[in-house]
Amino acid sequence: MEIQKGTYIKEYDETMEEKVITGLSISDDVLMVTVNNVPYNSKNISIIFDKLAKHHVNIDMISQTAPFNGYINVSFTASKEDVSTINEVEKELKAEIQGIKVSKESDITKLSVVGIGMMKQSGVAASIFTIFAENDIEFKQVTTSEISISYTLDSKDKQKAVTVLAQKLNL
């Protein structure tokens, strides 16, 4: 079988749980968009993501702040290739939701740690936060699933993050 780039998923095996984190995934094709000063209500969140969907922008990570004084901030990631489409969506959003501010960062890397053992192990995120703190690696966004934790960080920190995580996690 020829080995190709990509993600390989295999059948569950109990030995997979012995090691909590079994891999790292990196993507440099990341645009992080933050919509600030969004009046807090479900309708506005719906408007933002409906417009992106109608323009066929594939969204990856989504994070939202807790409401403060009636406003929230929403961040999401998409492919850098979608920047011109997102610029169009930004114009539409500003016309519909008064007072919002949109910022975009393209010098971003998405780093994910993956492992089926995370399903039953607490403290994994805390361990990664500590590794990042001890190595002066700042992250901008974090999202989780049962078997992965994904971070956005400045691309300049990518190699350092990969190196220290690989060392500390024995990858």
UniProtKB/TrEMBL annotation:
Recorded catalytic activity of this chain's protein: L-aspartate + ATP = 4-phospho-L-aspartate + ADP
UniProt xrefs under SUPFAM superfamilies: ACT-like
Keyword DNA repair: no
GO term, biological process aspect, one: threonine biosynthetic process
Gene Ontology terms: cellular component: cytosol
Keyword Hydrolase on entry: no
Keywords, alphabetical: Amino-acid biosynthesis, ATP-binding, Kinase, Lysine biosynthesis, Nucleotide-binding, Transferase
Protein name in the entry: aspartate kinase
Major enzyme class: transferase
Gene Ontology molecular function, alphabetical: aspartate kinase activity; ATP binding
